[in-house]
Amino acid sequence: MKANNNIQQKIENTFKATEAIKQVPVSPFFKDKTMQHLFPQKEEEKVVWSWFSPKLQLATLVCLVLLNILAFTKWKETKYDENVNLFAETYGLTTSSSTSLLN
Amino acid sequence: MEEQDFINDLKAGKQFAYAKLIDLFQQKVFATCISFVPNKEDAEDIAQDVFLEVFKSIHKFKGNSKLSTWIYRIATNKSLEFIRKKSTKKRFAFLQSLTGNDFEIDKTNYFTEINHPGIVLEQKETSETLFLAINQLPEAQRIVFTLNKIDDKSYKEISEITNKSISSIESLLFRAKKNLQITLEHFYKNEK
Predict the structure, then answer these.
(1) Which of B40, B55, B120, B176 has the most C-beta neighbours closer than 10 Å?
(2) What CA–CA distances, in Å, run from B68 to B163, B171, B181?
(3) CB contact (8 A) between residue A34 and residue B22
(4) Which residues form the RNA polymerase sigma factor 70 region 4 type domain (chain B) (predicted)?
């Protein structure tokens, strides 16, 4: 009987625990954190990169690739001509070298 | 009319409207979340999730209920979803506990890790037992008991949040108390 009373007392105390729970204030940074999640760096991105649309990005990429190809072929051609001239001069195969003073 | 303008601003995704919404509801939403999930960090994460959900789903809000009621409903659902996820992770431990007494409180579950700053140290153990017992209740009873006894919401508010009549709220609360009495009785008997 005494044990039952004791158990009942414990149960009542457990129910009363709900009344003892105090209000917990939300963290002062909660609003900022949530706003950052809702609007992630939208403003900064808008100001800096909004003009650089995907179409423009693609056009820039194509231009860069074409420029690179052009530069590479030009460089190759010049290099080739220079090498041939140098070779011809070294072995006396150029037209200017064939003109002899003896003729 | 004023609330309708505010809702329209929310639907338009205006930043100042969401700043105002958080100012108005952050404390209440957090209080509801921590009532279900007695851990400050987790409750804050859930509360944040609630506002993200409001942002995503505001276009679905038809105005059949008050905006506050709709937000508390999301808070309740998000909290229950969180508990469900946590419980699934501990399924193995739970399956082990099934071999024991039917009324035995599952001490392996999430509520053994209470971190609630509003619970005083002397009440910590008692509160842990209570939270464990509450989470043995059927979902409908658990929602009503938590919202009324821990979150301190009125029958009217609970009836709006749960879409149930006040008489069924009273009946659910009565059954919840009865079931808690049985669970706690078995727990304290087996404790010795």
Answers:
(1) B176
(2) 14, 25, 33
(3) yes
(4) 132-180
